Fold each of these.
Amino acid sequence: MENLIRFGEKFFDELEIAVYRSRDVSASVELNEISMASTRGGAVTVIRGINEGRLGLAIIDSDDPERIKEAIEQAAKMAKLNGRDEKWVSLPEPGAYKEAPKPNYGLKEASPDILVEKLVRGIKLAREKDPNAVVAGGEGGVSWEKRHVVNSHGVDVFQEGGAAFFFLELVGRKGDVVTPGIFDFDARRDLNLDVDGVVDRAVQRVRWAYNVEKSRNEEVPIILGPWAIAGLLSYTLLPAFSGERLVKETTPLAGKVGEKIASEVLTIYDDPFHPLSLEPTVADGEGVPTRKNVLIENGTFRGFVWDNYWAKVNGTESTGNGKRDLKSGGIGIDFHNVVIENGKRSLEDLIAEIDRGYFVDGFQGAHSSNPDNGNFAVTANPAFLIEDGEVKGASVFLVAGNVYELLNRASEITREQTVMPFMTTMTTPFIKFENVKIAGK
Amino acid sequence: MENLIRFGEKFFDELEIAVYRSRDVSASVELNEISMASTRGGAVTVIRGINEGRLGLAIIDSDDPERIKEAIEQAAKMAKLNGRDEKWVSLPEPGAYKEAPKPNYGLKEASPDILVEKLVRGIKLAREKDPNAVVAGGEGGVSWEKRHVVNSHGVDVFQEGGAAFFFLELVGRKGDVVTPGIFDFDARRDLNLDVDGVVDRAVQRVRWAYNVEKSRNEEVPIILGPWAIAGLLSYTLLPAFSGERLVKETTPLAGKVGEKIASEVLTIYDDPFHPLSLEPTVADGEGVPTRKNVLIENGTFRGFVWDNYWAKVNGTESTGNGKRDLKSGGIGIDFHNVVIENGKRSLEDLIAEIDRGYFVDGFQGAHSSNPDNGNFAVTANPAFLIEDGEVKGASVFLVAGNVYELLNRASEITREQTVMPFMTTMTTPFIKFENVKIAGK
């Protein structure tokens, strides 16, 4: 890599070479049968070079040095055609990196067989526990990635590691009732995926859903589950922490560092080193050391997250949140593992205290939310009516509101905490909110 | 491949091996600058084997015979764990294939440089023609694919070919007005991408959009452009032609062959051999000969389209519409090139005759439509108010309705016809609809 950097310096004032080599095995379920087993992989190299403030960025599907040289030349041609980016400062310098946790090499050469077995076991268990349930879909996967980021300022970080995930979607049919699709999942840095737990939790909710309860317009306590929380916050709250949005004036959190923006029960941080993190990375996509960044501490907003570019534009420092999009090659501000700190009591305890309210497993339509102000309008489905401390059946309703108003209504957080490997990776408990206005459907 | 089929027959009653090798070059624009140039490619092999009605499906990222053998064994293990599919009949037999048009080998080894040049030219032209316009985004791409499908019944079809596309997104800023993103594009089987035409059309609409006109609740003629049509029909109408949906009773077109379902001005067919088609394929994803399939002829519904599996379940024949999803490996019913037959007069002529109405360039929210009944609720944006035969400015409004009701309101089709390379590939003119109810916003 050293040679390639020297080669690139003939064309550029500064340059970065990032090489990714990945291997992904997976298996899928469709309607109680295994529908597919796959093994895929490959290499991608991204060249980012800057000459007199002009950017060149080239991507190739190879880690072969000769092809990397060609890509450097490609990026150099492109930089010549571009205008100067007056805001450009520089690529990052090396930093003080933590010691990376040892990767679990057992995942490196995993066979799809293991996933097929786990899925077959999940299907069998689910059908035994509920003969009316169909495993409509599901997937198991193991990914392994090697990443090597070097730049002409001396950054040189190599990391590798992997994670495994497993999910099932159950649909129950009983009499005239067809339940909504009920998802449950597990994700971790080893192969001890909790198939039994996934099935137990999903079957429980399918059972609840055999009874359908009408919802109505009311103001009630609601408990949101990890999937609902991750869906809603990914589109309404998390973008607001981006330093790029601070510079571009598209975050409602501008000027609010140190202010209370949520209920005191809420503490949220981004932490690649959390014990449940799927990717305990020591450096971000441009080689800046990662760290735990507190976003909200007991309801108080603590600060924005930054990549190298926008931090320097703003005269501050990267928080190690530069993540590379392998499709566009570009670096954007994003999270490693957003953690919502858990509480003391169990979900069961919280449900037992509700006279009338709802437990929301998932939201539909969160992607249409507006992160500029936090407004959202979503359909709660799957969702469940709670009466007299017990789940009575499935309901569908609408919630339209503002995420900051909602966060101020949080009253308790559960002890249970789940890693959501989809969308932004989040480690989240269940959260109870008081007096939420809902529209029956 | 013959050897691999023989090898697979040790494990399976029938099997299919489909090998795909692709190469994609592309370049992108962000905010007036070239943001990326990429060259990617690779091979994918999908094994589909059936033993005593049990399916095994394996995917690998290679076309190496040894790895294909491993994948066959993987698929065989999986088939053993699956239940019998009682509906399974057989893989297809070879058919009578048309002669494939000669591919344009000029695209096979295209360099991203050509695309960078075209994008640079597009940016320059756009900014010359409208100094208030920013090229917010854009992309040029050339793809080449080799496909080889063989099965144990003697199907053995090799095809290769490529296509190129180009699009720009312009945003204009004048005084307090920021226009919506205005897209225009070209796609074809050679590199003569019409950069000037893309810029001219986009700049014209940006100019229109500098004037903002309020919309109101009214019943008016609207003209839909190719992007709006492709978006709306992909989610509301096209799924209804699927034979799988006929079998599963989820299409409103069941029992309606020969009935009038749209205005007489509308003729719609799927035709991979249309002169503008980007992929003139002679066989579908499972090696069944393709053909022109008429869907709607002068307003009358002519029939469903089928892949091998659902056709045999239904006791009919595949129409050559089995398309492979390289992510899941599965075959699904889909289209090659949906053509809406064009008319005689120009878009200009149609606009000139409208006293008050709208031209809709794009719809938002079409993906939430219900293909089971054709109901939709979309936001028209970008859209333009027409008064006294002239475009007056940009408007945003809502249209909620049913696609079949809308299709019955079609009154005229333009001569101009455009290939839409996104979502379902469609070749579509502009269509005028009468007395459409809209809700002002």
Note: The radius of gyration of chain A is 24 Å.
Amino acid sequence: MIKKYCFGESVNTGATVLKLDSSQEELSYFKVKKQDQDTKGYQFIYLMDEKTQVFGLGENVRGMNKRGFIYESHCSDDPNHDEGKRSLYGAHNFILIRGKQNLGVFIDFPGKVRFDLGYTDKDEIRIEVDGEDFDFYLICEHSISEIAKRFRNLIGKSYVAPKWALGYQQSRWSYKNEAEVEAVIKGYRENKLPLDAVYLDIDYMERYKDFTVNKKAFPDLKCFAKHLKEQGIRLVPIIDAGVKIEKGYDVYEEGVKEDYFCKDANGKDFIGAVWPGKVHFPDFLQEKTRRWFGDKYKVLMDMGIEGFWNDMNEPALFYSEEGLKEAFEALDQLRALENIGIDEYFEMQNIMGSIQNSEKDYGRMYHQYNGEMVCHNKVHNLYGYNMTKAASEAFDRIEPDKRILLFSRASYIGMHRYGGIWTGDNKSWWSHLKMNIQMMPGLNLCGFIYSGADLGGFGDHATEDLVMRWLEFGIFTPLMRNHAAIGTREQEAYRFKDLEGFRNILNLRYSLMPYLYSEYMKAILEDKMYFRPIGFDYEEDEMAWQVEDQLMVGESMMIAPIYTQNAKGRYVYLPSDMLMLRIRSMEDMDRKVMEKGHHYIEVGLNEVLCFIKPNHLVPTTNPSLCIDTLKEDKLNLWGYVTSEATYMLYQDDGYTKKYEDETHYTKIGIKKQEEKYELSLSRNTVKINMNIN
Amino acid sequence: MIKKYCFGESVNTGATVLKLDSSQEELSYFKVKKQDQDTKGYQFIYLMDEKTQVFGLGENVRGMNKRGFIYESHCSDDPNHDEGKRSLYGAHNFILIRGKQNLGVFIDFPGKVRFDLGYTDKDEIRIEVDGEDFDFYLICEHSISEIAKRFRNLIGKSYVAPKWALGYQQSRWSYKNEAEVEAVIKGYRENKLPLDAVYLDIDYMERYKDFTVNKKAFPDLKCFAKHLKEQGIRLVPIIDAGVKIEKGYDVYEEGVKEDYFCKDANGKDFIGAVWPGKVHFPDFLQEKTRRWFGDKYKVLMDMGIEGFWNDMNEPALFYSEEGLKEAFEALDQLRALENIGIDEYFEMQNIMGSIQNSEKDYGRMYHQYNGEMVCHNKVHNLYGYNMTKAASEAFDRIEPDKRILLFSRASYIGMHRYGGIWTGDNKSWWSHLKMNIQMMPGLNLCGFIYSGADLGGFGDHATEDLVMRWLEFGIFTPLMRNHAAIGTREQEAYRFKDLEGFRNILNLRYSLMPYLYSEYMKAILEDKMYFRPIGFDYEEDEMAWQVEDQLMVGESMMIAPIYTQNAKGRYVYLPSDMLMLRIRSMEDMDRKVMEKGHHYIEVGLNEVLCFIKPNHLVPTTNPSLCIDTLKEDKLNLWGYVTSEATYMLYQDDGYTKKYEDETHYTKIGIKKQEEKYELSLSRNTVKINMNIN
């Protein structure tokens, strides 16, 4: 049951799709405290017992169980995703409390919300909302999974990516021209390594201007895109939030003329600086701006582009003119002192260090929101969300029947209906591979099914073993993209020594596609979680709830990734008997039924460890070099069947939006009869080869 | 067998105590490459197979097995101890290769040495020395432990701390005056929480001047120290490397007059800036400077101070006058441009960000070393080491018979003879608790037995559970100090809710003292490791070598600390049958003999998990509020005996340097005879109560 409690006048963020009336009952489970006059906000206090766990909060650091730290919803462009970070790029105000009564809580509020989950007092959850106008949603259900589903019902169906975007993708900041893109594709194709897309980071543009192409680097992008598509490769360009201030640049000129940009306090277009230098920020909170900006994507779509990533849309703000001026003035004052002492030196460092993404600058920026001038700080968390909504709604107009790849860095709950997210500028660190694993179910809880991290790590230098282990996990993330920053070691799969190992790992992704795609689509269409902490499937098993480094993937599989340098194996907890698969390649794997309980399992660097639940099935196929050429009419059925199992295979064209046709489903049944397995199929469109334990 | 290979003219760093002739044989196992003329250095390449592991490198990030990353020896004042850091505060050029032939390698060189351990090529160790004059020591023995011991023979006996310094200690940057120190002691004593020392960070000084005391804050330090000592509490002040430039300040005046300071290129005293503002750096590489500076500690010793921590001695260098001037000039040039664009902005940020600890500034500083002017860059890693040597040698002169507590932030191998180290400015992160665990054996390998991390974490805000778990590990580190930075949450044990839990943990430290102190002293006197990866004790057990989060502590115990947020248990690998102890308090613990193999063990937040090896003993006593009042004449003997066990108890006065007296040893024997345990004692100075499984 979902109850909505309205505080003040609620802000219509668009996060929810179910229209509920405000409950007239008193809010239970939480003690409500109105903050004092200065603070203007509310505090909600919940008492935890020793066993209480807290899930959710989407894109945030630390474990799946988020108890023991404090988080703040404030979309932040911060590349240091360390254990002390309270905010990353997304604002995902949903928590799921596993307590005596399981609860879901969603705070629909576009400003700051703090989730103090046993940080200040180890026995208390304290939710603090920095404002008086918001909606508090409380979901009560017996089962944790049911709460998760209810919340998805509330916020609406998740974005569906085109099927090719579930292929393996390669990115780098930046492949600067045609030749560099070609070289990457050659590196993959010559080594028979699958690949579906190459990304264009900011350098493909002309002086970082959105919707332009650097003609020297890409003389004919349309022709180039066509040529690549013939090889099954899509190009995916980046779009940044800021619009370069440059006379004669159409996007800039139109924006100024039609009043599409955010304003400063005097009603002039607000000036910030990001990659292009001085920019205006489109006021995505306005319908007319969204429509205008969204339509701009057509420039690239007309060149054959079928996917985009929206970046810098927290928005990142390197500096504002005023902020820089103030910083320089403060510096000069300090330098004018007779002696620059240590205090002055640190003050200077502090001045320079606080220019970027400063709250003061955000406070200088205004939106026209629901007819009023609203300071950016009050609606900060809606910015990237609305940029992505702008693009998505335009795609619906421009190509109504076609799925376009779209994902964003900044986000708010509700944006999951318009695009996916990637988890931003992580690093080539083992701890960030672990963070990737632990972050996925939280993202799913908040509706972000098409999501993933920069595999191999964005910042810092990768090593072969790290990239290999990370890809072994990446096999299972819907967005499977290897991405790295400028100045870091090249980490395309073909750069390393064990090419065969990498080939087997990438092939496995494509071989698993019948399963992964079915599960991905069903998670979206049925409001289910694609990734789940294992306790979600075994709610009565207290040990299952303690496991922080295994995941359920879809309905049949459990994975136990290796995320530790030099590890030659790992501990795994099986919440039931399961079939273990230790996969070196599709032709070479160990299969063994293992008992419920604790196990230490050896796992070589080139091996992928996964498990199939009892009486569950996993359809697979032969790999291919890209999704376009993947054949899925003859499937190889993996399974662990002690009595009988059914699996609902989902197959569609992968490119149009006709998701909900019953011809997409094939019910596969397996019945064990006297040591033999009997197959049944609801439709005869696929052939099945059985490989059942 | 130790072989020494001299390259060029070796620099006498003082790291070793064994005088060896240079081997005339060719260096085996390594391919030697002289770098080109520009680079001026050597590269040594070793081929690893899949099983090869690499231990050592002392104070560095990542796992115990250091394979898979690249490290650089360069003492660095860097508070971000993340996975990407190649250098921390110490330069510890010793690695131990576990391969087909086990090897130890020590590069005795005061400049930069890079240890590329499978980072660039996953199958190669590449050691790069940035110079042509150094000694390469190669140690070949069958057993890993034997190599570790040989290396310690080479570098000499480790520093011995006074016994009170093995008590629990509390620090913070800063307890600013008598009242704040008193309040901390009250917090501990009133709650019956043991405590042996309180630290004075930089604010106790008068304007950060070494060997001065702020009279307003501590009007009579001598009297105050005496008053605290009566309660069993020592005060431990910090000493920084830089000497404030201030007319009339005796240390400054003497240093200038007698030429004790480092020079610039023109032969003038080099000017840098650290906490006191402008400073000169004592040229600790000169005997005369060491003698002079060391004698200064007497000022505080005369006030009753018995311990010191040497800080900022990499040396940390916030800026130099010249460096700051250059930075400002560069900033001004950029600002003079008509348009400050994004490139200029980043250039400015870069300029400001590279002022601190810049190599350019280090290059402006000179030492008089072995009669020559030597650029600091060439001997950088010897600085903190020689500061600590200065203090230690002075203590020998001032109080020849008394042990004085001394530890340092920067270090080089060899410094372990003069003092301990703490691991610098970590953070209140779970990952840093894990790093603490994984760093300890590496430090021990390099001779640093008296060592430990800032328990609870220095930077960032701690939570109750983190501090509790960290102290549960800290029980076992010789230096057991809780320390936190200015501006962070207060984390003294009495600040939290579960006082009884903290009391039990601290009591356990004191109860274990007969064992911990015996093992600490024997590790030093017999060149053994106090902390060991478990493979060191079970060399034939391949699984034992894979374990990265358990440690052998002394000869009888194994620990398996909890280092994960919210964990209610953990996996443990037992390399043999062992007696498990799950300790809530000395009166309340679970004891169970467990079989060799893998186990999942539940461990409550207030429980300490440890193990006793078969036929091994652990003497314990009743806790006390400080070491001075700890009674160790009646011991409670824990043990796991299947046939017979002997334990060599070491007891001395704890304060003088008469370590090597045979009356300090009591041999305790236990024989199991028909289900009964028979006790034998070599001396009757202690009474033993048996508690044997």
Note: Chain A has a mean pLDDT of 97.
